[in-house]
Structures are given as structure tokens and as C-alpha cells.
Amino acid sequence: MSAAPVLQESSWETFVEVWNGLDLPEGWRAEIIEERIVMSPPPDQNHNLIGSRVNKALVRALPDDWEVLQTQGIALPSSSRIVVPDLLVVLRERMTPAVVLPGEDALLSVEITSKSNADTDRTTKLRAYAQAGIPLYLLIDRFAPRWPTITLFSEPDGEAYRESHSVPFGKPLDLPAPFTVTLETEAFPR
């Protein structure tokens, strides 16, 4: 598997400038993925319900100085990307007024697939989050080939995640310390 091309610094800055100046319709998001600006419409209610349930579980488990953010852009310039995970966990002290946070400041990134972006979440973002060194990536794949699954990727080595653990919807998934929470997935809509 080859790495994504890395933009020249001036091209990266131009992409970020264009991305930053976009005037998107309410609820839409834009990301820079492999030298393209990709826009996505608002997600459906099942997507949002799963996000809400995961958000509640994380908020209950985390210390007060950690934040669970929605629609927060993170920059992954080493792989020519700005992505907007469905949920992102960061330490409050690492937050800045910038529109985009550095990817290396993320502790957990959560993606919930939609039909239109499932392959991007499964491959491109998986690789980008590992390259950025984000310790945990939670992929909630409503459209997995066999059945809906939730997978926790861990131990990034700069290229890929060395560990993963998957369960089908309906089975619980434990998140490790410092989260130390069990995600109950039986109520996740498909």
C-alpha cells in the first residue's frame, strides 16, 4: 500500500486557505483528502444517534480536563489532509482558538460511516490517523461488508495501527485506560 502523496508546502498552504474560506451550507463539512477538497452533506439520524450515544459514554468516563468535540477539524499535513472526525477527544490545555487542531494533539478519533464515505473511513482515514500518531481510532462501521461492526484501532507505529479489536453491533466494546469505559452497542441503529 503506497503512502498518499505529500503536497509541497505552498500547495498545502493554498489548500488550507481555500478550505478555510469555504462557505458551506448548514451541517455540511469539508475535508482535504489526498489532494482534493471533499464535501459531505449532513449525516442521517441513525448516524447522529450513534454519535450521541458514544459522546455520552465518553463524557461520563473522562476527567474534566478532557473534551469531546464534534465537527472539529484536525490537520494531518504529513499526509496532505484536514479531516473532520465525528468525535474527537483532546486535552483542554491543547485546544487553541484555531479552526484546525494539530492531529498529534488528538487522543481518540471517532468515525461513523455513511454509505458515501465508508471506504474513506476504513482505509484513508485509518492510515492518516495512524501516521499522525493518534493513540486510538474508533471506527463505527454501519455498512461493513458482513454486518455492522465497531472496531478500536490502537498502537500506531507511524504507518499503521498494530492492534485492533472488533465486535458486531449488539456486543459491548471496552475502551482502554484512560477512558476505561464499555461502549454498549445493542441500541446502535443500523
TrEMBL record:
Signal peptide: none
Family annotation (CDD domains): DUF820-like
A Pfam family of this chain: Uma2
Record key words, sorted: Endonuclease, Hydrolase, Nuclease
InterPro entries: Nuclease_put_TT1808, Restrct_endonuc-II-like, Uma2
Domain called Putative restriction endonuclease: residue spans: 24-180
GO function terms (MF aspect): endonuclease activity
UniProt name for this protein: Uma2 family endonuclease
